Amino acid sequence: MRCVPPGRDAGAKATVKTHLTHLYAKLGVNDRAAAVAVAYDRGILG
After folding, report:
1. Which of 3, 10, 15, 29 could form a disulfide with 34 if both were Cys (CB 3.0 to 4.6 A apart)?
2. In the prediction, which pLDDT does 38 show?
3. What is the secondary structure of 4-39 as a DSSP string?
4. Rounded CA gap, 21 and 23, in Å?
5. Using one digit for the tens of pLDDT, what is the confidence trace for 1-46?
6. pLDDT at position 4
7. Is residue 27 within 8 Å of 35, Cβ to Cβ?
8. What is the distance in angstroms between the CA of the first residue and the CA of the last residue of the chain?
């Protein structure tokens, strides 16, 4: 893990949020818990 100066990680957080939003949309869910449940149901996890 690299060190990032304070205040410089805002872009990274926005990128992660965007990726999660797109993933939730593809799974048809609105939050992490629902995404995990759908992933188990579809055999993506476990």
Report:
1. 29
2. 96
3. --TTS-HHHHHHHHHHHHHHHHHHT-SSHHHHHHHH
4. 5
5. 567 677 777 788 899 999 999 999 999 999 999 999 999 999 999 8
6. 66
7. yes
8. 27
**Residue 34 confidence (pLDDT):** 98
Tokens matching residue 44: 């993506």
- Please state whether the predicted TM-score (pTM) of the whole model is above 0.85: no
Cβ atoms within 10 Å, residue 35: 19
Q: Are 30 and 24 in contact (CB under 8 A)?
A: yes
Q: How many CB atoms lie within 10 A of CB 29?
A: 16
Which residue carries 């759908």 as its tokens? Answer: 38
Residue with tokens 């304070």: 6
